[in-house]
Amino acid sequence: MAKQIYLLVGTKKGAFILTSNLSRKKWSLKGPLLKGAEVNDIVLDTRTKPRMYAAVTSYWWGTNVHVSKNFGKSWEQSAGVKFEQTLPAQETDKPAADGQNNVKKVWCVVPGRTSEPNVLYAGVDPGALFTSNDGGKSWSEVKSLTNHSTREKWFPGAGGLMVHSIALHPSDTKKMFVGISAAGMFATEDGCTTWEPRNKDVRADFLPEKFPHVGQCVHHLELHPDKPEVLYQQNHCGVYRSDNEGKDWTDISDGLPSRFGFPIQIHPHDPDTVYVIPEEGAEFRAVVKGELAVYQSKNRGKSWKKLTKGLPKKNAFLQIHRQAMAMDSLDKSGIYVGTSSGQIFYSRDEGKNWDVLIDYLPTIYSLSTAVV
Predict the structure, then answer these.
(1) Which of 167, 207, 267, 275 has the lowest CB atom count within 10 Å?
(2) Which of 6, 4, 2 is nearest to 369 (CA)?
(3) Residue 342: which H helix or E strand, with range?
(4) Burial of 210 (0-12, 13-18, 19+ CB in 10 A)
(5) Nearest alpha carbon to residue 307 among 277, 329, 330, 280
């Protein structure tokens, strides 16, 4: 059977699946799935038999992780993503039930390493990490992060207080890095027993202390499996690279029209090539001057190239959410960008040329790809 590429779309009003053959010229749409709920993240896990995982928030039924074993035809809920302790009142606006605080929202679901096929990770609001060892059936809170000694200095950003980025070291199962808004980047080297804030030289312009130990607003964090010691982040206050697992950060914002933005992607076949989409700023969260432009660096952020061919160049006041840019793993990687107004723009040649893949979807929260 010929392989297909899957583009999974999480939106404000459910999930959608777009499929194509490897030419990526014609696409078929399936959905809405999980209709009526917010889907903040949806991924296709191919480590064993393909399974889809979705981070779902319903106005009526709350938030949970849903699992599909038949490419979205039917879904099962997990046993629940719930705290086992009471958090400070300012961190949750929902009442405790049976001694447990409700999780406000599951922001992301990340499959574990190939060597741990039933392991999953989920980042939530308010500011916590959960793990599953049984393929998403049940979840456990990583209390060492929830109870971190610096937690009193964490605070919600505009979207809440959330763990939204989870970067796993590909070979060392004890190493993991998470991005928290607004707390910063935290690392563990002992399998989640302890966590260390790693925010040196990362700005927090919105605080009295501009370079605090914690309190930075990471917008998105990524690493590449070929160079896992190198981390990239798009921050509220700049784009940064670390060459030593976050122990030091280098500001690589020079050459961009704005320091503010949400998504960042590393090329799947070239760990030195990264992509960002700048926005005007916190007070006006839309692409700079109404022009949708993707910026590419092929030298780890030393210089940037503006990519716009086929993208709207004026009066396009679009916002791109933190998880709404993705790349596929084909030889000439495709790039996909989902917007706040429901368009998906894509490039089949790594950003040189762009087309509209689909229009009129609900607000797009996340994109992910898989080839099966």
Answers:
(1) 207
(2) 6
(3) none
(4) exposed
(5) 277
How many Å apart are CA 13 and CA 364, to the nearest integer?
9
d(CA 179, CA 187): 9
User: Does residue 160 contact residue 125 with C-beta atoms inside 8 Å?
Assistant: yes
Instruction: Report the C-alpha dihedral over residues 239, 243, 245, 251, rounded to 10 degrees.
Output: -20
H-state helical runs in 83-230: 143-146
DSSP 118: T
Which residue carries 């009003």 as its tokens? 13
Q: Which of 361, 328, 319, 371 is nearest to 346 (CA)?
A: 328
Mind listing the pLDDT tens digit for each residue in 84-104? Answer: 876 665 565 544 444 346 899
Kindly report, residue by residue over 11-65, the tens digit of the pLDDT.
999 999 999 999 999 999 999 999 989 999 999 999 999 999 999 999 888 999 9
Q: How far apart are CA 200 and CA 187, in angstroms?
A: 13
Residue 222's alpha-carbon distances to 22, 69, 268, 343, in angstroms, are 26, 27, 11, 24
Contact 39, 13 (CB under 8 A): no
User: What per-residue confidence (pLDDT) applies to 96?
Assistant: 40
CA distances from 91 to 62, 162, 218 (A): 17, 10, 18
8 Å CB contact between 250 and 265: no
| Contacting residues for 18 by C-beta, under 8 A, at least 6 apart | 6, 7, 9, 27, 28, 29, 30, 344, 357, 358
* DSSP class of 133: S
Query: Which residue reads 């022009």 in tokens?
Result: 291
